[in-house]
Amino acid sequence: MLPGRGQDGRAARLARILGTRTAWSAVGDGEFFCPGCGGDRNYQRLTGHRRFTLLGVPVLPRGETAPVVECAACRRHFGTDVLDHPTTTRFSAMLRDAVHTVALAVLAAGGTCARPSLEAAAATVRAAGFDECTEEQLNALVEALAADTGRVFSEPCGAGLAIELHEALDPLAPHLAPPGRESILLQGARIALADGPYTPAERDVLATVGSALTICAEDVTRLLAAAARTPS
Q1: Alpha helices in 111-134 (DSSP H)
Q2: 36: DSSP letter
Q3: What's a Pfam family this protein contains (predicted)?
């Protein structure tokens, strides 16, 4: 008999006699981004109860398992933290709303809503997914926001505007790679530069955008300077 063969055989026989089994119960469902499939899928949230088995028959409880998420397509199990990642549909909406908010903030900071800035902002917002956005719509939104909040054009980024930017950008930032975060900042910079050099209020707004996107102050300064040197 080869060395170890007897122990391996006994271990295999014991495993067939004694073991554990997990019984899963569904406690919720929804849609999530499945890391296994690489796309949006339906899921079930499961809780499990482990039991010792004798000859395949459950005999003694062994406690609960941590809850898991089961993909309805690939049937793989994932930790519940996978639900923190937005679905593709939700991510696209978050990105679209973020670009729209940044464009409005930069236009408000610019003070005059000059036609070049409006054209640049409308093109940026349309590219982000608001296909029907026009210069007139953006101008009306900026004026309505100013009237509603009492905000004065060309003033530094006040608390209200900073809150709006953080509400739009904070949830998005963890799901963007550094180039993606920088892209949003640079889109705002190009809108600001469309009618001339940055104003102090525009720089202040763009600094707030960079902070909300977790871009350090030094990199914000570098990116804004590079955008100013780049021909439009």
Answers
A1: 115-128
A2: T
A3: TerB
| The pLDDT value given to residue 152 | 47
- Residue entry with tokens 């900071």: 109
Q: What are phi and psi of 52, to 5 degrees?
A: -70, 145
User: Please, are residues 139 and 113 in contact by the beta-carbon 8 Å criterion?
Assistant: yes
pTM over 0.85: no
Per-residue burial over 153-175, b = 16 or more CB atoms within 10 Å of its CB, e = otherwise? eeeebbeebbebbbebbeebbeb
Q: What is the mean pLDDT of the chain?
A: 84
Q: List CB contacts of 60: < 8 A, sequence separation 6 or more.
A: 51, 52
CA distance 216 to 211: 7
Give the tokens for residue 21.
């089994």
Per the CB < 8 A criterion, the answer to whether 87 and 33 are in contact is yes
> Based on C-alpha coordinates, what's the Rg of the chain?
27
Residue 55 CB: number of other CB atoms within 10 A?
9
Q: Closest Cα partner for 154 from 99, 116, 114, 106?
A: 106
- The better pLDDT of the pair 147, 131 is held by 131
Residue-wise pLDDT tens digits, 40-88: 999 999 987 776 555 555 555 566 778 999 999 999 999 999 999 999 9
